[in-house]
Amino acid sequence: MLEVKDLRKSFGAAKRALDGVSFPVRPGEIFGFVGANGAGKTTTMRIIMGVLEADAGEVTWQGTPIDFTTRRRFGYMPEERGLYQKMRVAEQIEYFGRLHGLSPSQARKAAADLIEQLGLTARANDAVQTLSLGNQQRVQLAVALVHDPEVLILDEPFSGLDPLAVDTLAEVLRGRALGGVAVIFSSHQLELVERLCDSVGIIARGRMVATGPVDELRAAAGRRLRVVVADAGPDWADGLPGELTVENGRQVLTTTTKEDDQKILRAAMEAGQVEYFGSEYPSLSEIFREAVA
Amino acid sequence: MNAVMLVAGREIRSQVRSKGFVIGLLVTVLVMVGLTYAPKVFGGPDSYKIGLVASERLQLPGDVEVEWVEYPAEEPARRAVLAGEVDAVLVDGARVLTENQIDDRLALMLQTAHREAQIAAAGVRITPLVMEALSPDARYADTRGDIAFVLVLVLFMLIFGTPMMVAMGVVEEKSSRIVEILFAAVRPWQLLAGKVVGLGVIGLINLVVIVGAGLAGATASGLAVEFPPGMAGIVAGVVGWFVLGYLFFALCAAALGALVSRQEEVGSVMTPLTTVVFAAYAVAFYAISEPTGTVARVVSFIPPFSAMVMPVRTAAAPTPLWEVLVAAALMVAALVAMVVLGGKVYERAVLRTGARVRLREVLGSR
């Protein structure tokens, strides 16, 4: 298990980037790391990869603190993509495989497999600089995957990809997780995180505000009752629990109450035409907005 | 070690494959071969065309080729001189006509030959003087100077140019953040060592090709006959000094390059290195003409200047072996210090992207 324990990091006296970040990621689990810009995602990932040093706290893999030897079995995709622009695609993937300790034949095979899997076959012998950004990103991912890492640390791997590429990448990550890899990725695409991840961690201003399996987080946030009423006056819900908003000219009441639902329904029917009445769990985006607010 | 070789291999491959490398090599080969033929082409003509008007041919020295042209009268001969058809015309065995001021060498030869002819006609026989230089230096002073001159340029080009490539490579990896991925696989010293070794091999290939082309050209053009004894030692010394100087400056360049995050900043951050190399170049240039002077002698011991001045001094004049060895030992000591210092700066600075990192920050205690 990869454990991030109480990481703290300040840049200078004024800027505290991480203020006690902790979360676990199990082998075979895809962990979605979400948070607003500047919340501390990249800093956390850079500390895991040893690019930055934490002021306090530690990261362990299988119970022992991560060092250089452990990290060689990790795959990393940094926030700012970095490849040798003039090197050819296949050659570059192979090179990183070799640096991670693969034999020449292993590296060649791993590179060939990834190139096929990621749909880069036609560009295998082109220089990276001639590829579109989306394709360069696939190469970047291949570089992170080539040595069959035990842990994947991916900073915004989906940003800038078209929907088809997103599907390919999601497929690849799922496959790796099934093979027992612990995957951490950060993203702003919350629907995607919800769909793909076994668990999520929400970070805000350097602290984890929620961590756990998506279903548990949603359940913990509780069922919500949602009522949509057309042609109702703005004061129809006076005295009722919950929050009233206007969507497309319709009055929408959202509440977490469970006892008063029949009372609310009656009030709504009296106020106007009820278009929707039902209870649902909040989406990850809603949880995120609440947690970050 | 394996990682170092992998990194070095990548550097070598990416250089060798670039068009610039191949074209650069071809151009240097052409320039070197051209240089070895230069004395023949520009060294003044060894052959003359001389017109005769009512004169006997003169006995000129054996190594000078002369084509004699007879003219019936002075007037057509004058026209031929002005038209550049002949270099000079001897009239009545008494006057020499040339288009412009006569070339000193030709004037001396004609004067001497004329005098000897007169003396011989008077029945006096003289044995020519036999010239013999006693100092071994004197015989080769000119050639040594030429060799040293070429060496200064070659060493300057390579000892300055190759470390610049190291710096560019370091900044490329830093600015594109490839280092962040690389450091998950290799240690900083392995990446640095691989880069320095790989580009060093490229520098050595350049040096060997340049020196090889020079020697081959000299042999073909016949210039090699005038090479001083101990040429092999001079060449070996040049290679050795290049390796020492390159390693020193390459590590320095890598450390300085690691301080900045953008290619545009490489030039300005390299100023200290550039200054030192140019100073060494200036002294080395001076050492060509004054190889045994105090300045050249003293500076040829001071690292890193010694890397350029000592090989030039050795080429320009015979230099005691102990002096070369002492200078080399000092250079090696400086190199060891640079390995420690440069390695430290590189490792601490190369992951700090953004604003230019100050040396003080990375050298301070941590």
Describe the structure in brief.
The complex is a heterodimer of chains A (293) and B (366). With 293 residues, chain A is α/β, with parallel strands linked by helices.
Q: In words, what does this structure look like?
A:
The complex is a heterodimer of chains A (293) and B (366). Chain A has ten helices and 14 strands. With 293 residues, chain A is an alpha/beta fold. In chain A, helix 3 (89-99) crosses helix 4. The longest helix of chain A is centred in the middle third of the chain and has 16 residues, at 163-178. The relative contact order of chain A is 0.14. The mean pLDDT of chain A is 89. Helices cover 67% and strands 6% of the residues of chain B. Chain B has a four-stranded mixed β-sheet with strand order 2-1-3-4, covered by helices on one side. In chain B, a hairpin with a 3-residue loop joins strand 3 and strand 4 (95-97). In chain B, helix 5 runs parallel beside helix 8 (231-257), helix 7 (188-221) packs antiparallel against helix 8 (231-257) and helix 8 (231-257) packs antiparallel against helix 12 (306-316). The longest helix of chain B is centred in the middle third of the chain and has 40 residues, at 136-175. Chain B is elongated, with a radius of gyration of 29 Å. The model of chain B has no long low-confidence stretch (mean pLDDT 86). At the A-B interface, strand 6 and helix 3 of A face helix 1 and helix 6 of B.
List the helices and strands and how they pair.
The complex is a heterodimer of chains A (293) and B (366).
Chain A (H helix, E strand, L loop, with lengths): L1 E10 L3 E11 L4 E6 L5 H8 L7 E6 L2 E2 L2 H4 L2 E4 L11 H11 L4 H14 L15 H13 L5 E4 L8 H16 L3 E5 L3 H7 L2 E6 L2 E7 H8 L2 E7 L12 E5 L2 E6 L5 H11 L1 E8 L3 H9 L1
Parallel strand pairs in A: 3-8, 3-9, 6-7, 7-8
Antiparallel strand pairs in A: 1-2, 1-4, 4-5, 9-10, 11-13, 11-14, 12-13
Chain B lengths: L1 H16 L1 H24 L4 E7 L11 E7 L2 H9 L5 E4 L3 E3 L6 H18 L14 H40 L2 H5 L5 H34 L9 H27 L8 H4 L1 H19 L4 H6 L6 H11 L4 H29 L9 H5 L3
Parallel strand pairs in B: 1-2, 1-3
Antiparallel strand pairs in B: 3-4
Helix pairs in contact in B: 1-7, 2-7, 5-7, 5-8, 5-10, 5-12, 7-8, 8-12, 8-13, 10-12, 12-13
